[in-house]
Sequence to fold (295 residues):
Amino acid sequence: MNALILSAGLGERMRPITESIPKPLLPLVNERLIDFNIKYLFRNGVYKVGVNLFHKHEIIKKHLTQYSDRTHIVVEKELLGTGGALFNFQDFLKDDFILYSGDVVSDLKLQEVVEFHKEHKPVATLVLTKNQGIEFEIGKDNRIERMFWGDGFGHTFAGIAVFSRKVFSFLPQKMTFSIVDIFRNILQSKAPIMGLPAVMRWYNINSPYAYWRIHHDLLQGVTEFEGMLLSSPIHIAPSSKVQTESMKGFVSINEGCIIAKGVYLENTIVLPRSRITKGNYHNCILSNNFRITAA
Fold:
């Protein structure tokens, strides 16, 4: 089975971070976000991964050369939306396939979702989580009966789905559209679309706070993921030069950084190639160009 990771967005809600680092290449302690997700998919039986790109695509494409024999990359000339991205992968996604949002991190037991999908053969099987947003009402047989804007924490789309090849017949007759438009078309046609509420560790890296929070949880031992071995709340990339010993809580210092002796860091992320010569920083995301107080 192949998969498609949606990775073309501008990362507007993550600015100013994504003005210099595209979201797929955001460091996740000692891993890049897109590397974590590609390896997760490979571990879960995916053979090849499609990746759509737009924002800073040259940098990401160069990074992905390490997976060249198992990736299929399409650079969009203009943003097509989370649904419109499927247009360019119709030849690549010839059978049932997995759709995975590029800003999601999870430990979902993906094979169980695939097995459910193969057994019931709907057009789509959506993984659902409790969150704010568009809610999905599901019947006793896990068939989705309706979708609506909710005002609480209901069953919302987790950014992970298994699709039948039939999904391509439900694409809207326009170039740019959301994945939600596809779900709506399936529902209106009365074709089967299923929802699976999942128990999993799940993060949506869609804001500076969410980015700060996953670092907090990983480094403080609140959560853990397969393949990410962290033995201390203080992570310093080997290529960084750190003179200060004044660090408290969790600290993640990425590659190529220089941190002077007088700097104090507490619950702080220092982005790659940053030079910090002075200051006290609490609950921050730092670079040469900005300081974001995230919590």
Summary: The mean pLDDT is 92.
